[in-house]
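User: Batch of two.

Assistant: Item 1 of 2:
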Amino acid sequence: MWILDRMPYANARSNISLMSQSSCRRFLKTSIPWQERVCPAAANIPLRRFSVHCNLPATMPSTSPPIINGTNTTLQNTKIKRKDECEQEKSIKRRDYLVEQIARKLQMITTESSEELKRIDEIQRLGIGYHFEDVIDSILRVQCSAFSTEEDLFTTALRFRLLRHAGFHVSPEVFMRFKEKSGKFKESDTLGLLSLYEASNMRAEGEEILDEAKEFTESRMKRSLDELAPHLREQVGQALEVARHMRMGRLEARRFIEEYSKQSGHDRDLLELATLDYNQVQAQHKMELAEIIRWWKELGLVDKLKFGRDRPLECFLWTVGLLPDPKYSTCRIELAKTIALLLVLDDIFDTYGKMDELILFTHAIRRRDLEAMKTLPEYMKICYMALYNTTNEIGYRVLKDTGRTVLPYLKSTWIDMIEGFMVEAKWFGGGISPPNLEEYIENGVSTAGAYMALVHLFFLIGEGVTDQNASLLSQKPYPKLFSAAGRILRLWDDLGTAKEEQERGDLASSIPLFIKEKNLATEEEVTSHILEEILRLWKDMNGELISKNKFMPLSIIKVALNMARASQVVYKHDHHTYFSNVDNYVEAIFFTPLD
């Protein structure tokens, strides 16, 4: 059951889709067809044929109304379109100028390393770090050896966090000098505590110093929260709710841009660039979304299979969560296609297909050829053909771009997922519970689409792929990094939808298994236990991030981390606000520009 599997069906409990559908209709009325969007890096090639590493397009989508019959109206709209294009060109030139200016400023900060670190932190939180990757990387390499016994806790913790976030291995021993002889951490001001708290969330398994730091700072900040000044209270409150390391990139960028604009003494050039960039990336996302909707309509699956979920917007939200960097345009589009297909497959196994039909379909998927399709019912043939063609198209794209044959890997991960669906169909179709918690979760990672998404992106991104690390995907179990990210997704899913599933009589949840195997009595105990497990899994992923001997490319490690971040955004909700929250995220990221 994919990352959206517990979201409501189109024909039941569908209030999640109401705003999104209206936004989608508004978007389709106002956007230029995908084929008209052009990126300078690819001359006059349509954007949908870009390579994986496409940068921001030079031509942003127009928001002018569509041309209708009538000469005067046509001329008027042509003028509006030209005016929009002129404004877009000015905006892009201004962005490029600001990038140059800020890069110079960043390189000139040499007097106080804390100022350099704070500026890097601001740039990354504003969502514009990808413009300065080389500059930031060179600065951080120098910062690796810049720890000093003279600097304060705030600076040490900030440097530690930024270096680990970038994948550098830094020992937590740098915090030993902030401890008393008794072994306890020394008291500090709120900014120092906050900085140490954020750093402690970068901890890996077995790092007791950081475990102690998290416990110490968390208790101190909670105790003093009501006594803090309003702006500091807000910062601390947000950190205690979700640490920076665990926040979804595009949502954090939007939130921090608004926060940064209210800070006294903020850098006006930095704020202007962040605002321009946010809107331009949003325009790029609209173009990508137009291509996904075009593909989905041409595919016609939902028209032919009325039971299938029609959710291109929510699928695309996930892809933006996993891949916030603008250069991954093609990856987002292709991944959204796989998610949309997965939702239909999930509906077949979950609600529509009969057991004998599901067995036939599973056998056909294992055979991996068109001959296997002949024995299937008509509705399954349509879905099988859509999956067959889409997977082959993605395999061809990777072969064309990288020269690597990946179709066997892609097909294998689909087989794993379909077999997982079959296992769940036997469990829950028969009204029985899974044998144990571990078996449920591991199978649930596969049916959540985690392995499928990460394997596809491993090859679509293509950075750092070798025969050695690719071979890790052809054997089971999947890499620990993939498993940890997928388990976090599955646990957040179960935690966020437990009550809804129970009311529906759905047994597909880890909640009752936690209660049974861990001897838990209350809902609060279950929640606490699952959250502890999620934090432990974060340690596993952090360990992969900072490992000196990384088996996986840094790019796919970041994708796995982003999967965990996006899972929390989608499924962590209080007071039954889940549906409106997801709608708000869609509206903010795709349809509402910043002023």
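Item 2 of 2:
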Amino acid sequence: MSALRHHTPPGPPRSNRAQEPEEESYNIIPIHKLLADQPSLRYPKVRAAAATLRTIGNLRKPPYAQWHPSMDLLDWLALFFGLQKDNVRNQQEHIVFHLANAQMLLTLPPDNIDTLDATVLRRFRRKLLKNYTNWCSYLNKKSNIWIPNQSSADLRRELLYASLNLFIGGEAANLRFMPECICYIFHNKAMELKKILEDYIDKNTGQPMVPSFLSDNVFLNCVVKPIYETINEEVERLKLFLQFSIIIAWEDKKYPWEALADRSSLLDAGMQYSLVSRETMWLGVRMFLKSAIAAGWIIVFGVFYGRIWSQKNSDGRWSDEARRRIVNFLEVALVFVLPELLALALFIIPRIRNFLENSNWRIFYLLSWWFQSRSFVGRGLREWLFDNIKYTLFWVLVLATKFSFSYFLQIKPMIKPSRQLVDLKNVTYEWHEFFKNSNRFAVGLLWLPMVLIYLMDLQIWYSIYSSFVGAAVGLFAHLGEIRNIQQLKLRFQFFGSAIQFNLMPEEKLLNARGTLKIKFKDAIYRLKLRYGLGRPYTKLEEEDIISDQELELLELPQNSWNVRVIRWPCFLLCNELLLALSQAKDLMCKNEHRRCVIIEAYDSVKHLLLEIIKINTEEHSIITIEKFTKTFNMIAFPHFHTKLIKLVELLNKPKKDLNRVVNTLQALYEIAMRDFFKEKRSTEQLREDGLATRDPTAMVWLLFQNAIELPDA
């Protein structure tokens, strides 16, 4: 507590806090420049969250520090509690993103999209401080979070308490691994924040309450650092047992307790008492009580067992009274096993155990105290029933194998030679005979290797079964199937079919009323679909999950057009073709997906044109000539791309206008001849290369007039 109540005289104004926030850099969102032309600020939910941080209102300004109108609530907290500047900047963007995402997930959007919904902030604070609330309930302490009603000022308190918790986590460094310590710090700092908000008057100074500070990093230096140093000292002191042993051994006595007769060693040993915590003492009390109760049960069982035989001996037979005493003995045994039955029930039904551990009722605490120490961290984390069953079955299998092996292959084969050795008479030993006229020592030597193996083979069986179980878990979890980037690339060949398989409804994949044979075939078919070795049962015609057009974007297209590369799903390629068009001069093939989409587009367009142009025509021969990057200038791609889109749209219409198709093809030819060539070519040169009609009287606008033959749908 002393580390939290640091009462020192307030220092001078801090110069680095006087810097205008507008001059500060930012990671993603310019918190202090809400009017900046920045992409993230175009979203209303981001603007609403950022604006919420600016609702200072009538809060009392921090003394001894320069305040700027552009500062927000988090700057206000930082000035009052002496937080690190970088911590404040990080948490500002962190909180804005949290609130913006929560606003986006609202079922019903708020009436004013530029205002943060009150429920968003309230849920954010409750979720963030849930652990602190549980900690207060665990220790039966009253929470220091005080929000009287649901006004706008109280929404500001919601944000202040949540921000204070995040600030403490950011300042705490390695103390974050001690959740109870974080709750303890927040508990005290929340009380200080409550007094500041309520304008509490300090009785010593007669002035409004102000946390004492000296510099910007006062929280780190005066709260976090002292706690860390205290913990570090305790860790160092936990090493004595070594110190204690050396002190006792230094007295050079035969037994350790003889050294305690010396006053100095007794004093040094007594100094270690401070390491015994309250929990350690209660652990000792519990162990002592368990031992005492166990001794008591031994006496009880002995008494009831003796009563049975005394009654039987006095009656000379198993009389009704003797049988009644047997029943009494069994009743006592039932009382004895009741705690074990409770422990077994808690093991079988872990939900009950988790409920008991998470509950703060005293009666539940007393029930659970007998089995284990009470702890806030890690409570209610018991394994579920299925995990317990798997764990139990594993050890049942290991132990059953071990005992079966030991009995049938170790113990039983030793019985016959042991008997034969015991029955040997008049044996003369070359060494000392430990047992006169007996071979028991030889029998012991015979059994010694077997006993040693019996004691250690459990570890061997455990290693064997754990390797099999680990291999099975890795197999079903697909661990190690993809070991390098090449194998990862190969997996994308099955990407489309795997996505389609996982998005299909269950009734589309399985025959629910089929026989066992049909269900087995369905299971095999599902595996083939999952790994891209089969085709889906039927193509989805309904739009339960995604539309047919979206499904086509997810599918891996069939390579029926003689495309020379893997045809990736369209959604995976995204805008790679447009990027390639805009960077056609030098960056076309530096990206694998971009290279594939360029070649796929080229081969697909070539296939399309050859499909709609009649074979054995001059137009058909022009398309088949392979002189692309060597002959053409690629800066004309965007124009060609626009015309190709128009051509595809015309071909996809229910009623196809043949004249417009011809006009579009002529326009494509004109762009190719006029813009694509790196060097201007005459008509004669085009004819020599086979890129123009050989009829000298034919005009460009007559091309494709009689060469188009559209295929069916």
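The mean pLDDT is 76.
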